[in-house]
Amino acid sequence: MQTYLVSYPPSSNSAWLCTAATFFIASLAGCGSEYGSTAIGVVTLDGNPITPGLVTFVPEDPTAVPSVSNLDSNGGYELKTNKLPGLSPGKYRASVQAFRPPDVPEGQRSFEPSEPLVPEKYLQVTTSGLEYNVELGSNTINIELITD
After folding, report:
1. pTM of structure
2. What angle do CA 148, 125, 145 make, to 5 degrees?
3. pLDDT tens digits, one per residue of 82-137
4. Which CATH class is domain 37-145?
5. Closest Cα partner for 83 from 131, 118, 33, 121?
6. How far is it, in rounded angstroms, from Cα 79 to Cα 69?
7. Residue 67 in contact with residue 54, Cβ under 8 Å?
8. Integer CA distances (angstroms), 97 to 15, 101, 140, in order
9. Do residues 57 and 139 make contact, with C-beta atoms less than 8 angstroms apart?
10. From CA 54, how far away is CA 51, in angstroms rounded?
């Protein structure tokens, strides 16, 4: 049985490494949002931050996917789609779901409905009246709710 030794010229390793590095760097250039846009903001009710809660953006385009975000301790949010940062550009209707945490002893559950922290109209996209246009790129959308 014969054994063959294949040897590449020294420059071919350098060329391969250079090509791989070029593709890697090019792939980083697109990092930001897989969906083309990002949206961050703060949710307030009568000027006060809302927390805890959830923001939902439902696209007008039926082929696009809804985006959601939990509200942080300052009422801030960053929308995600399929657990990835960002959303598709376009027109959206939004809702804010925020409820008072149940008053139960630690380690126990409550099955009683929680009281909303926002007026009920904001709980559903069909009644909230919250409509936003998300542009390609970075967007800051502060959601200012008011008590009726």
Report:
1. 0.74
2. 35
3. 999 999 999 999 999 999 988 888 888 878 888 999 999 999 999 999 999 999 99
4. mainly beta
5. 33
6. 5
7. no
8. 55, 12, 20
9. no
10. 9
Question: For the chain, what are the domain ranges?
Answer: 37-145
Written as one letter, the residue type at 115 is E
Q: What is the C-alpha to C-alpha distance for residues 25 and 109, in angstroms, rounded to an integer?
A: 50
pLDDT digits (tens, 9 = 90+) for 60-96: 999 999 999 999 999 999 999 999 999 999 999 999 9
Instruction: Cite the beta strand spans of the chain per DSSP E.
Output: 37-45, 48-49, 54-59, 67-70, 76-78, 80-81, 84-85, 90-97, 130-134, 137-140, 143-145
Scored b (16 or more CB within 10 A) or e, 118-141 reads: beeebbebeebebebebeeeebeb
User: Cα(35)–Cα(134) distance, rounded to whole angstroms?
Assistant: 11
Residues 6+ apart with CB under 8 A from 148: 119, 121
